[in-house]
Amino acid sequence: MMSSNPFHRINISLVILPSLFLTAYYLFASFPRSPIPPIIHTSLAHLPSSSPSWNIYPENFYNGGAYVNLPLGRARILVRYWLIGPENGRRVVLIHGLSIPAIVWKDVAPVLASRGYRVLLYDLYGRGYSDAPQVTYDTTLFTTQLALLMQHVKWDNAFIVGLSMGGGIAAAFSAHFPHLVNGKVAFVASAGIMESGDISRTAKFMSSPLVQTVTALPPFQHYMRRLANASKPAELQEILRLQSAHLPHYNAAVASSLRDGPIRGLHFAFQELACTSNQVLIIHGTADDTVLYKFASKIRDLVPQADLVTISDGGHDITITHASDVSAALLRFLADNYSYKPAQMSLA
Hints:
Layout: H1 6-28, E1 40-41, H2 53-56, E2 65-72, E3 75-84, E4 91-95, H3 109-114, E5 118-122, E6 132-133, H4 139-152, E7 158-163, H5 165-176, E8 181-188, H6 201-206, H7 209-215, H8 218-230, H9 235-246, H10 250-260, H11 267-274, E9 279-285, H12 294-302, E10 307-311, H13 318-321, H14 323-334, E11 345-347
Parallel strand pairs: 4-5, 4-7, 7-8, 8-9, 9-10, 10-11
Antiparallel strand pairs: 1-6, 2-3, 3-5
InterPro entries: AB_hydrolase_1 (IPR000073), AB_hydrolase_fold (IPR029058), Carboxylesterase_BioH (IPR050228)
GO molecular function: hydrolase activity
Protein name: Alpha/beta-hydrolase
């Protein structure tokens, strides 16, 4: 039977408590190991010269190309960018989308440059000629990448144009770094406010961590390389397949972007944009089956001052299929004498 003597209980406490305290002190008073830099995976730049990618999308696809090492924690990420157009031109940033790198602007960027704009293009982390850090591809990762790149090229601000997921990046960038936006933001076939139900079951399955683990295994990668080298689809489809087959972290980067990135949940960014003096343009095709046309109207509901240019029968790749229409709309919008017109424009 336990003693009811209070002095006995005190003596036991005096023996046990210091021991417990010392144990806890040594267990919890030490810091964990120093943070480990993320693993960095290579880009198209490391493929052999025999790879078809060098013919489709070489490093010098645009003039004025260069690399920069951008900081990410304790790591440095190699990023490819291009500056085209006159050095004293009005500055425009073009942000590509989820899977296709800066080649997607091939029929738009030169038009802007020829009309006197200084255009900055770049490959997002994990795409094209930019390395792929093994991290979560969330919105902050992409907005910070652009802010660091603009700092590197010594741009105080610029007009911001985003395509597809790049539209989500443009919206979040405007919210995170409003001082870097020079009064104009354009969204082309823009994502950013899609809901989980708007993403196909197949896309959700393929972007799951389990599937990504399987597809990273050497046998699957070998199969994808053979498939990519044997097939000759359209230009953009081929660069997509080559990235998927040859870049070790491309599929995981795309999957993480789909799960965690600027595809969904950016209503707040568009709402914040509505509270600024920025002029806003939305360009969207009625036949877009990737980011449905309804999202153009939903974005406009969030940003009432936005102009909406509707491209009749335009799909998701309108910078390729309707490049002249997109270029014309952007040139009108970026001009100094642009003024908002309440009635939407429709391009047949």
